[in-house]
Amino acid sequence: xxxxxxxxxxxxxxxxxxxxxxxxxxxxxxxxxxxxxxxxxxxxxxxxxxxxxxxxxxxxxxxxxxxxxxxxxxxxxxxxxxxxxxxxxxxxxxxxxxxxxxxxxxxxxxxxxxxxxxxxxxxxxxxxxxxxxxxxxxxxxxxxxxxxxxxxxxxxxxxxxxxxxxxxxxxxxxxxxxxxxxxxxxxxxxxxxxxxxxxxxxxxxxxxxxxxxxxxxxxxxxxxxxxxxxxxxxxxxxxxxxxxxxxxxxxxxxxxxxxxxxxxxxxxxxxxxxxxxxxxxxxxxxxxxxxxxxxxxxxxxxxxxxxxxxxx
Amino acid sequence: xxxxxxxxxxxxxxxxxxxxxxxxxxxxxxxxxxxxxxxxxxxxxxxxxxxxxxxxxxxxxxxxxxxxxxxxxxxxxxxxxxxxxxxxxxxxxxxxxxxxxxxxxxxxxxxxxxxxxxxxxxxxxxxxxxxxxxxxxxxxxxxxxxxxxxxxxxxxxxxxxxxxxxxxxxxxxxxxxxxxxxxxxxxxxxxxxxxxxxxxxxxxxxxxxxxxxxxxxxxxxxx
Amino acid sequence: xxxxxxxxxxxxxxxxxxxxxxxxxxxxxxxxxxxxxxxxxxxxxxxxxxxxxxxxxxxxxxxxxxxxxxxxxxxxxxxxxxxxxxxxxxxxxxxxxxxxxxxxxxxxxxxxxxxxxxxxxxxxxxxxxxxxxxxxxxxxxxxxxxxxxxxxxxxxxxxxxxxxxxxxxxxxxxxxxxxxxxxxxxxxxxxxxxxxxxxxxxxxxxxxxxxxxxxxxxxxxxxxxxxxxxxxxxxxxxxxxxxxxxxxxxxxxxxxxxxxxxxxxxxxxxxxxxxxxxxxxxxxxxxxxxxxxxxxxxxxxxxxxxxxxxxxxxxxxxxxxxxxxxxxxxxxxxxxxxxxxxxxx
Lengths: 312, 223, 345
What we know:
The complex is a heterotrimer of chains A (312), B (223) and C (345). With 312 residues, chain A is α/β, with parallel strands linked by helices. Chain A is 32% helix and 28% strand. Chain B has one domain. In chain B, α1 packs across α2. The longest helix of chain B is centred in the first third of the chain and has 41 residues. Chain B starts with a helix and ends in a 5-residue tail after the last helix. Chain C has 345 residues and is α+β, with helices and mostly antiparallel strands. Chain C has a domain of 160 residues. At the B-C interface, α2, α6, α7, α8 and α9 of B face α1 of C.
C-alpha cells in the first residue's frame, strides 16, 4: 500500500503547465541577473527563450535543470519543485547540455546500452538507431572522435529514445553547421508535435527557432520583455520607417509603451512597435510629432528580436 | 542501473586499471626478485640479520606507488565527468544522486583494493619460502599505510576533482596534501600499527567529502 | 550526509591546522638550546661542565664556578682522557692513592646507553642467541634465530627457513628444567659482532622470574637468578663491558636501576632512581672509580655520580636546558616512541 502510494506520488502531476517558475531571482555574488521572473510553459508547447548574451538564458536553463539554486523563487516541473524532485521524476525530463555534451569515452552502442537501463518501459531503442543510421559513423566509433554535428545527433537520438514529457535544450544550435541544424530542428519538431511533448529551449540562432517554437520569451537585462506565442508576436510586431521631421530629437520618443529602440538613420526614423498603427500615430501626436508617411513592414523573428532588444 | 553505472566507470578506467595493476604487480615482483637475488648472493642469514638488526624491509621504494595509482585513478575516473560538465548527465539520471556518487566511489575503491591486494598477495607468497612468518608480517604491516595512502589519495582526488570552483579546489589540494603527508610521517617499519585502524577509518570517511563537492556542483557554485 | 561531510571537513581542516601551523611556527622561530657535556671528576669531587658560551665558545667549569683550561680538565678527568694524558706524558703514577696503569683504566672503562625510542621499538619477535664460547676472537652472529612460543622456544635456521627441532627441544628442556615458565614476558640481548664477548640473554619468564640463557658451543646454559625480596623487574639490559664484572642492568617497577653481578648473580641496588626506561634516555660513562649517569627527558637533564664500588649516589646535578620557543600543537611522532598516533605536544 505504501509502495503504491510512493509510486503514485512519483508520477507527473497533471498540471496545465509543465513548467512553472515564480518570482525567480538570481545573483552571482553582487551581480544581479534578474529579479522576480515568473513564467510558465503549458503542456505540449515548444517554448524558446531568447535573449542577448548575459541576460540570464543559461542561468534559467541551469535553474530549470536543477543545477543552480536560485537566490529566490521557485521552479516546478510536472508539479515538483526542481530542487527537491524525487529522482524517478527525472526520467520524464530530457536534458541537452550546451554543446551536445555526452560521455566522450563511449561509442554509440555503449551509450545506448548505458542509458537504456535507466529508462525501463519507456526507452525507444529504434528511435535512437533510426537517427544513428543517418550518421555515417561506425558503431564502435567513440563519441570523442565524432564531429560536433554527429555528436548533436547522438545527443538528440538519446533524448528521443528516452521519450520524456519535457525536453530542456540548452543552445542546441551551438557548433552546428546549417545542415545539421536543419536536421536537428526538423527531427525535434516532428517528434514534439507527434508525441505532444513540451520543449523548453534556447539558441543563439533565431532563424532556427522560428521554424520550431510555438511560444517565445524574450529576455532583456533583468526582466522578461515579451512572452507570447510567436505567431501573435509576429502578427503584432512591425518595423516602422518615416522621414524624420526637421530638428527631430530622438528623446521625444523616450518611454513610449509599445515602441522600441527608435533610431535615426540618414534622416530616416526607424523603430519597432508591438501596437497597431493608429495607436502609434496617436502616441506620436501626443509627443507633438505629426508624421504622415509612416511605413510599416512585416518582419521575421530575428528582426523582431533585434527590434525589441536593440542592436547593442 | 547500478550495473550500468559500473559499466560506465569501467569504460572510463579499464585501460588505466589494467596498466596500474600491471605496474603495481610488476614493481612488487621486481622488489621480491631483488630480495631473492640478494639472498642468492649474500645468503639468507645476511638478509635476516639486516632485517632484524637494522630495521630494513627491502620494499621502501614501493611507498609512493599506491599513492600515485590512487591519484591517477581519481583523475581518470572523475576528470571525464567534469569535462564540459558531463557530471550533469550523470546526476540527471533517474537514480538517487547519492547512490550514484557512492557507486562511482565504491567502484574505484574496489578496483584499487583488488589491484593492491594482488600486489600484497604476490609479496606474501614470494616471501613465504625465504622468510619466517614474523618477518613477512613485519614487511607487509609496514606496507599497509602506503596502500591505505593510495586509497586516501583516490578519495581525496575524487573530492578535489568534483569540486566545481578553483578557489576551493586549491584549498582542498592543500588540505589533501597535508592529509596524505600523515601517511608518510615515519619510515620506521610498523610505526603505524596502533594508528592504522583509525587511519583506515578516517580514510574511508573521506568518501563522504565527494558528496560535498557534488552538492556544490548541484547548487551551481562557480568561480 | 551533507551535514556529516561538512562536519568531517571541518574536523579534518582543524586537525591539519593544529598540526601544520604550530610546526611551521616552531620551525621558523625555535632555536634548539645546546646542553652542556658533563663528567664527574673524582679528584675535585664535583661535576665538570663543558658548556657552550655564545661569546667565549667552549667553557670548562665546575658547579662552584671555577673554570679550567683544556689541559686542566684533562687532568681532572684522567680516566676519560687517559689516551690524551698518556700521549702528553702526563699520566700520573697514582690515582686517588692507587697505582693504576692506563691499560687497567681502559679495561674498566665502559659506556652504556638506552633510549626510550629503542625500549619502545617495534621489534620483530625473533631473537639472536650468539655463541658465547666460540673459541674465536671475532664475534659472529648465529646462523639461526630464536622464537618463543607459549610452550617453548624454536630455533629457525635462516638458510633453510626451517625449525631446528632437535636444538629447540634441547634448549626448551634445559629452561624448563630450571623452572622457566613460557612464554617469556621480557627478553634482552645485544646481538652484535662489535663487542668483545657475549653474555647471552636475560629473560623474564611468565611468572616474573629472572633467567640467564647462554649458548656454549651449541649447548644451552640456563640459570635462574634469585631476585631480592620485593624486586619486580620491568626492563632488562644485557651489558657486555670489557671488565666482565656485570651481567646486566635491571630496572624495577619503581624506576630504580639494579646491577647484576656476573660472578655471583647477585643484584645490587644502584643510586640511579627515577629512571623510566620507556620515557627517559639514559647514558652511563663508567670507570673504576665512578659512573657519570645522564638521565634525560624532553624537559630536564639529570646528571648523577655513582660510586663504582658501592653503586651509591655521590652527587647530582639537574639542568633545565633552554629549549627556546615551542608552540604546542598536534603531532604524530614522538621522540620516545616509534609508534605514531595523534599526540598533543
